[in-house]
Amino acid sequence: MKDQLEKIKQEFLEGLKEIKDTLQLEELKNEFFSRKSGKVNEVMKVLKDLAGDAKKEFGVLVNEFKMEMEMNLAKKKSELDKEKMGNLVDEEGIDVTEPKLPLYEGGHLHPITIVQNELEDLFTSMGFMILDGPELESEYYNFEAVNIPADHPARDMQDTFYIKNHANWVMRTHTSTMQARSMQKYGAPLRMIVPGKCFRNEATDVRHEHTFYQLEGMVIDKNITFGDMKGILETVAKHLYGKDTKVKLRPKFYPFVEPGVNGEVTCYLCKGLGCRLCKGTGWLEIFGAGMTHPNVIKEGGLDPNVYQGFAFGFGLTRLVMLKYGIDDIRLLESGDLRFLKQF
Ligand code: PHE
Question: 0.90 exceeded by the pTM?
């Protein structure tokens, strides 16, 4: 009996060596373990004819053989599985073919917002408050209150969008609308900036867009001089382009300041030598400024004989274009992800 079992075992182990795939393995398993015709079961049938110790002894023996064979079977099966997965599963059992989860791509700030935040930080550190104002504005605050009466030629340069059936409403053409508004609301002394969207009816091209951003600033107090203005503007220029940056102020007319200036800073790319960015001049024009006109101070509800001040307006959109080397202004409001994802 024992010999018979031993013979079956040898036969099984020999068979196992020849196995090449799971199908063959399944066949071998049936050949030996099938309930109906399996070779092991055939031998077990003898059990019922035995009795007493002989039965017990044989039972234990058969079970041992069975267990050993099953162990070998399982071992072979795992070998085959491993072979099949081959190098797809590495040592740690990580399936390298598993599709990876898409990486979470966090959003980020728009380049205009990045530069705006940077300037807000600088101005708050100098004691300025940050104001917000309406984009849909009355003609009064956009023009009259900043010394641009209805028949003034300056209006031609700032054509904008008008609202049907609301003759006196305009999309603001500049953030200077907040000059009179802020004085009326907060009085003096006053130190404020207004970053925000402005609109103009432009024939759009690489340098003109119907929607753009400015950053207005104003200081109103007693004994404010042109020197104070220059100091602030130099601080901003150095903050933006480094401590060697110089500021050049050239006379320019703006109805709401007197005197008015056009502000240029040393080109940060060529350091003033002249290059493509500054069109060979060595200077970049980035703001308008001037001493606040007495008429504007009056509109703000203050006495121009007591209070003076200055105002400046940075082209925020222009600063962003210079900073990132953007050559088409229309990209900024385009919502084009190919453009936006670069920041
Ligand atoms: N509002 C002016 C413009 O849009 C800029 C400016 C602001 C100039 C304040 C002087 C003082 O061009």
Answer: no
State the distance from the centre of ligand 1 to the C-alpha of 306, rounded, in angstroms. 23
Q: List the Cα angle 259/261/267 in 5-degree steps.
A: 160
Determine the Cα angle at 68 with ends 67 and 72, to 5°. 115
**From ligand 1's centre to the CA of 157, what distance in Å?**
12
Report cis status (omega within 30 of 0) of the bond before 251: no
Cβ partners under 8 Å of residue 89, min gap 6: 82, 95, 96
CA of 254 to the centre of ligand 1 (A): 7
pLDDT 10s per residue in the chain (343 long)? 778 888 888 888 898 888 888 888 888 888 888 888 888 888 778 778 888 888 888 888 888 888 888 888 888 888 888 777 765 666 677 777 888 887 777 889 999 999 999 999 999 999 999 999 999 999 999 999 999 999 998 888 888 999 999 989 999 999 999 999 999 999 999 999 999 999 999 899 999 999 999 999 999 999 999 999 999 999 999 999 999 999 999 999 999 999 999 999 999 999 999 999 899 999 999 999 999 999 999 999 999 999 999 999 999 999 999 999 999 999 999 999 999 999 8
Site to substitute for ligand 1 among 142, 194, 254, 319, most atoms within 8 A of C-beta: 254
In this structure, what token pair is assigned to residue 191?
């130190």
Which amino acid residue places its CA nearest to atom 7 of ligand 1?
Answer: 313
